[in-house]
Amino acid sequence: MLQLKDASIFQREILILSDVNLDIKKGEFNYLIGKTGSGKSSLMKTLYGDLPLQKGLGSIVGFDLIKLKENEIPFLRRKIGIVFQDFKLLNDRNVFDNLLFVLKATGWKVKAEIEAKINDVLEKVDMKSKGFQMPYKLSGGEQQRIAIARALLNNPEMILADEPTGNLDPKTSIEIMNVLEDINKTGITILMATHDYPLILKFPHKTVKCEGGKVFEVV
Amino acid sequence: MSKSFEKYHKRRLRSSYISVVISIALVLFLLGLLGLLVINTKKVSNHFKEQAAITLFIKNDVKKEGIDKLLVSIDKEPFTKNTRFISKDEAAEIYKKENGEDFMNFLGYNPLQNAIDINVKADFVTPEQMAKIEKIYTNNQFISEVSYDKPLIDLLTKNVRRISFFILIFSALSTLIVVVLINSSLRLSVYSKRFTIKTMQMVGATKSFIRKPFIWRSIKLGIIGAFFALLGLSGIIYYIHKNYPEFNFINDKLQILSLFGGIFLIGIIITWLSTFFATQRFLNLKTDELYY
Do A118 and A131 meet the contact criterion of CB atoms below 8 Å apart? Predict the structure, then answer.
């Protein structure tokens, strides 16, 4: 599902992480931890094609990250769902239209199928009644649920969640974790960057750490 | 609270669209005025050029039949716009009116000559062509003298050339300013949506899919701007036509329609290209590059 071998992660010309070796299999739930500025986000950005992989080997959901071309990036992002700390919803349209945009952008055409899919993902995150709300009218937890629903729209093989509970209170964080756990149980692989250690203790999974420019597994 | 935020958001959006439409309308209006000037420069310069006349003074012994023949032959010449015969009595009358004194009283006879005024077509109003025309009639047996205002013709030719050159430079500069102004107001409008554009990319939308609604919206603003510009231009044309009908501003309807069509197309093409390049710029940036 995700493999990095002797990979180096760069932010422009600056080396952030070196000799990164990572192997995540289908259906796994992995945490990526580390202090702020340790390189978690840069690693995530490399995985979803926002930063190029310049050195080493890497593949994710069948895409070779070294050979990844600019015009292939949208198609990579359709096979992985991305969840951000700041939700990144489109504030100029309601929840339904946020999800509709993704489906239209990814080639869905039949109205009935589109509506069914949107209702399906909203139900999965327990937000079925919020379709016609504007995103800024929702609480942080609700917005993150919508962001997760958006990530699920194209039946991704993997979800990359970059500190999805970073802006949420502990109770809401647990609710979001429960949603992610449920998604993982359906067979979707999850890599979640976080520094919320109580959450890791509550929902234990394989954990890799970014520290001192290296990535290694911790217990 | 959220309702007032929504209203505020809508109002902000509307005012940003209005300012884009105003700037598009203003610059297209100026470009239209310039186009009008360029189209009519020749017409206006011809109008002034064709006021200049060559006067042929006819010998006193030439009979009426001879003068008529001469008039017919002048009218057939390719350089003749129109001719006017002024008899010596008419000339004396004109002189009397202009100067307020009757020279016949103290001279006892009319010393003036019969004359023909030739208004020459604009294309022939150059020092060289006028000299050629002068030469043709200097040797004519019926004509005693050929006269025209040489310094005026020199000045007219030089000034028309100079003005045409400046209009050309001014047109090029104005077109550049139009492109830069429309481009920067649309760039600003796209810039305000740069994070939205990046989010759209993050969810798997292709560049062309993201660009399309931005371009379409800009084209719509361009069309509205062009409409207002053409409305203003129509007002100006109407005003000129009403106050200076001799310039025949609306007689050549095809030319006016072409100018209007051109302004409309320029409005669409500039907004389309500007938005294309503005969105392309943000589509090509990495997320971190959006902050600086």
Answer: yes
